[in-house]
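Could you show me just one protein sequence together with its fold in token form as a worked example?
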Amino acid sequence: MQDFGEFAARERDGWANEGLVSAYVDKFVPVTDSIARVLVERSSPRDKSILDLCCGQGTLTAMLCDAGAKVTGLDFSNEILARAALNAPEADLRQGDAGSLPFDDGAFDQVVCNFGMMHLPDQQKALSEVQRVLRPDGRFLMATWAAPDVSPAFGTVFGAIRGNADFSKAPAQPDLFIFAKPEGAREMMKVSGLRVVSHEIVPAFWELSEPGELFEIFLTATVAASQLIKGQEPEVIGAIQEQITDNVRENFGDEGGFRVPVPVAIVEAAL
């Protein structure tokens, strides 16, 4: 496997930063919580034992608890787990590594992961751990961002970055969108002993008041994209910002604000 050690170190350091965590909660969570509600509906959680993998600020964790599940939440960031403790006081929250889960084989009826897989340096190892801790009739539900070719939001941002940035300033990292396409999800799951049951793209939107907000979201509330942008020369950063802002202004105006589609792939797998 390619060495993603620097990527992993940057993720750990980034999610220990209170400012980044606050920006993520402010900018991303309105979107990710809309998808969390879909995951809860599809999981039929009542009376089930569920692991919320990469639980983040714990809003999905809390939804699952409210729906009658016995929930364990795990994340590598103590900074964000402190927020999860406030949002989901009924859950059993653990600090730990998704690639080495501190649970017995077959410990859970379900594992859910809401936008966590792209932050992991070894996604295949994490999936193998998911397979290990699931009961024989268990299910795995995950959400991930749709790829730039079908996502206006990510297409806008990554198009501007690709057109202007020097990628040698970023460390090697796993494929952010490997689960966004059915064939990629099937292959990743198969290697780890899981079988894709369904793969669906569902709609979601960023509701913005200013066209420059999309650039600010990726500059302040992400780790990898933010560090890549900030590592560029000032004129390159300006060009990226201008291209993203102009695209939002020209294409996504909506009743005095801006509504940018950011579709999501929801993947369900079983043993």
Notes: The mean pLDDT is 96. The chain has eleven helices and ten strands. The longest helix spans residues 234-251.
